[in-house]
Amino acid sequence: MPVPRRYTAGWVLPFEGPPVADGAVLVDEHGRIAAVGPARNVPGSPAVHEVALGPASALLPGFVNAHTHLELTGLDAAAPESDFPAWIRRIIAVKAARSPAQFLEAARQGVRDGWAQGITTVADTGDTGAVMVALAELGGSGICYHEVFGPHPDVAEIQFAAWVTRMEELAEHATPRVRLGASPHAPYSVSGPLYRRVARWADARGMPLAVHLAESAEESLLLEGRGGFADAWKGRGIPMPEAGGRSPVEWLDQHEVLGPRTLCIHMVRASGSDLDLVRSRHSAIAHCPRSNRRHGHGDAPLPAMLARGIQVGVGTDSVASVSPLDLLAEARVARAIGGLGATQALELVTLGAARAIGLDREIGSLVPGKWADLVAVDLGRPVDAAELADTVLARGGQAVRMTVLGGRTVFEQQP
C-alpha cells in the first residue's frame, strides 16, 4: 500500500481549475488524491512523507496515451515500406517471428518506457494479450482492446467464437486499473458480420470498443473494390464488402459499431458528415498525428473534431510507426494542426484523453478522490504563469523527473 505523501512544486496544473503557484498535492495511503492547492493550504503531518520537487518544476496529471500497441515494442523501423498495405503485411510477418515470451517482454518494456515519459495510462490495442498481462503484473493502468481479425464473412462465426474464448481468458488478468476492451481491427481486416457480432457482444457487457477507422485512402478504396487492400482481398477470394457508396465510418455505423463506448482511431479521411455521425453516436477519437504523417495519410481534421465537441485524445501509435514514443511530441504536432494553445494541447494528453477513453472520473486531472497519477516535469528554470504550459510542452518527455502511479513512484530520473 502506498505511503501518504505530500508533493510540492513550483507549479501544479490540475486541469480542472487554474494552475497553482507554489502548489502541493497530498496523496493518501490508498493512492488517491486527498488535497490539491497552494502548499500553505495543503498541510502535511509527521506521518506524511514530503517530496519537494523545487521551484523549477511542474506537477501534472499522469499522461494518458489514447492509442498504442505496446506488444510491438522493439520493432522500431521494422517496416520501412511507404505503401500502407505493404506495411501492414510486413508487420504481420515480423510479428509471426516473435514468440509469446518475446511479446510479453516487449509489453513489459513498453509499459516501463511509457512511465519514463510520464505516461501512466494507456489505451492499447493488440492481439497477443501480452499488454494485459504485463500491466497486471507491473501494477499498471490502462484499457487493453483485444483485436479480432477476419475479412471473410463465411468464417465470421468461427473467428468470433475463438476471440470470445480468448477474451474470457484475458479477463482473468483484469484489475481495478486494468480493463479489457474489444477491438475489431479495421474495415480492411474485418467483415461486416464479424463487426456486428463483436459490437453486440461488447455492448451487452458494457465493454469499451476501439477500431482503426478512416486512416488511409486505401481503406476507402476497398469499399469501392479498388486499391491495394481490395487487390489483396480478391487474391484471397474474399468477397468485397457491400458498401453501397458509404464511407468507412458510415459502413461501420451500419454494422452497429459506433456508440458511446467506441474509440475511433485515426479518422484522417473523415468528412464533415462522418464527424457529424461520430458526434451523434457520442463516440470518441484517438488522434495520432505523427503516425498519420509517417504513413503519408496526411493530417486528420482535428479542428473540425474539436469544433463539434467530439472527445479527442492524442496517442502515439506504435514504435513500428513512430519512434521513440513521445506523447508530448504528439501534442506539439496536434497543437500545430489544431491551432491550439499550449494548455489545450496538454489537455489532449491528460483530461481530454481520459474523457475519450471513458476514464475521466478516475484519472486525467488532479482533484481529490481521483487516482494519484502524477508526472513531475523539470522546467529548466522558474517560469511565470504566462509561459508555464508552453514550457512544459516544449520541454517534452525527456524532462520528466518523476512518474507516480496510484501513489507509487514508478519512474524517477537519476541525478
Please name the defining characteristics of this protein.
16 strands, 8-stranded mixed β-sheet, 4-stranded parallel β-sheet, alpha/beta, 415 residues, 22% strand
Structure notes:
By secondary structure, this protein is of the alpha/beta class. Helix content is 35%, strand content 22%. The protein is built from 15 helices and 16 strands. The chain has helices at residues 84-96, 100-116, 130-138, 156-170, 192-204, 217-222, 227-235, 248-254, 272-280, 289-294, 302-307, 327-338, 342-347, 351-356, 385-395, and strands at 5-12, 20-27, 33-38, 49-52, 57-61, 63-68, 119-126, 142-148, 178-184, 209-213, 262-266, 284-287, 312-314, 374-378, 400-405, 408-412. The radius of gyration is 21 Å and the shape is globular. The model has no long low-confidence stretch (mean pLDDT 95).
In short:
This protein is 35% helix and 22% strand.
Distance between the termini: 26 Å
- DSSP strand tally: 16
Look at the structure and give the mean pLDDT. 95
Stretches where pLDDT is under 50 for at least 5 consecutive residues are none
Cα-atom Rg, whole angstroms?
Answer: 21 Å
Helicity level: 25-40%
What is the 3D shape? globular
Structural class: alpha/beta
DSSP helical segment count: 15
Proportion of beta-strand residues: 15-25%
How would you characterize the largest beta sheet? 8 strands, mixed
SSE topology:
Elements: E1 5-12, E2 20-27, E3 33-38, E4 49-52, E5 57-61, E6 63-68, H1 84-96, H2 100-116, E7 119-126, H3 130-138, E8 142-148, H4 156-170, E9 178-184, H5 192-204, E10 209-213, H6 217-222, H7 227-235, H8 248-254, E11 262-266, H9 272-280, E12 284-287, H10 289-294, H11 302-307, E13 312-314, H12 327-338, H13 342-347, H14 351-356, E14 374-378, H15 385-395, E15 400-405, E16 408-412
Parallel strand pairs: 1-4, 1-5, 6-7, 7-8, 8-9, 10-11, 11-12, 12-13
Antiparallel strand pairs: 1-2, 2-3, 5-14, 14-15, 15-16
Helix pairs in contact: 2-3, 4-5
